[in-house]
Amino acid sequence: MSTFAAVFAPNGKTWRGSEVDLGDVEVIDDITDLMMDLATDWGSELALLLMEADDEWFAVVRVDESDPDPRVYLSDGRVVHDHPLAGVLSEAGGLGAPVPAESAGARPDPRPDGEGDLLTDLGVTEDELSDLSVGGGVLPSDVLAVVAERAGFAELLDSMRL
Fold it and tell me: NCBIfam families of this UniProt entry (predicted)?
């Protein structure tokens, strides 16, 4: 199972970022504590976690000093039943679309779940995020690249993916 995860935080007009290992997380608080620790170290009150797994789905988590509860968006809510990290993320708001009863063969279109408006102030609207999530042929890494470009840290994300 291949997973990429990185935390980003702005300090003025400059973004800082770090790839993170989420292999030991057990609860959502482990993730939000990590995010806020990095944001504080970088002089920011906001942190974003961008995560993608197996070129199949992605997640965005947002924490802000003014609101201790994380905001989470999953490109496909059904993954909370299949992927341990998605299950941890689902603790943030009861995410998780029901597993469809169809055969185990082809998986139907993704079912985005969570707070789709968590990136609106950074240039990605809820409708656009949803469209990107269900758009055929769009890889999760491509969606995260759009998010990073709009927010202003595309080069930083690209440098982590080399």
Answer: tRNA_deam_assoc
